[in-house]
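FORM 12-B: Structure-to-Sequence Request
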């Protein structure tokens, strides 16, 4: 049976109500795994139901409908979350995207900059190399958090800045 436009394709070995119940149950089971800022449980359940209905077009009746729906909806919700969660937007999604950009292209110091913006890239690279070679291991995690714009306690930040000043004190690159 070929469904008309806008109609749901019903597999021949299931009733319409059975298919709807399976789609709803699958969406409700998977939705809690894919909640993210900007979408609550009901939004994800609804998206899962739509994906389940769309999946019926690709269903091969030689396989279990329940397994097919679970696998298909699960994969599509993963893609949905990936694509929607990391869009530039307001709130937590924007913070996540900003952090990802900082990690991919970190700046030397995000705040309380020891290096002025006027310094050229060569000087920055030299300073980064000097810091990388001389920074004690116990400060590396704080240094990475600091350069990526993440928060660290004021006490640890001051200690880190003191260590960094000590490391670069002999180099004149416009340091404070």
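FORM 12-B RESPONSE
SEQUENCE OUT:
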């Amino acid at each position: 049976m070929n469904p008309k436009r806008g109609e749901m394709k019903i597999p021949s070995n299931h009733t319409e109500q059975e298919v709807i119940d399976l789609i709803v149950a699958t969406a409700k089971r998977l939705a809690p795994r894919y909640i993210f800022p900007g979408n609550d449980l009901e939004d994800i359940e609804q998206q899962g139901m739509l994906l389940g209905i769309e999946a019926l077009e690709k269903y091969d009746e030689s396989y279990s409908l329940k397994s097919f729906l679970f696998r298909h909806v699960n994969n599509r919700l993963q893609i949905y979350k990936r694509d929607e969660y990391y869009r530039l937007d307001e709130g937590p999604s924007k913070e996540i995207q900003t952090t990802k950009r900082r990690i991919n292209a970190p700046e030397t110091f995000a705040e309380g900059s020891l290096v002025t913006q006027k310094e050229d890239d060569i000087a920055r690279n030299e300073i980064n190399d000097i810091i990388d070679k001389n920074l004690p291991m116990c400060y590396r995690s704080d240094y990475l958090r600091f350069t990526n714009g993440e928060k660290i306690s004021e006490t640890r930040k001051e200690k880190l800045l003191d260590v960094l000043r000590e490391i670069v004190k002999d180099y004149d690159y416009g340091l404070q």
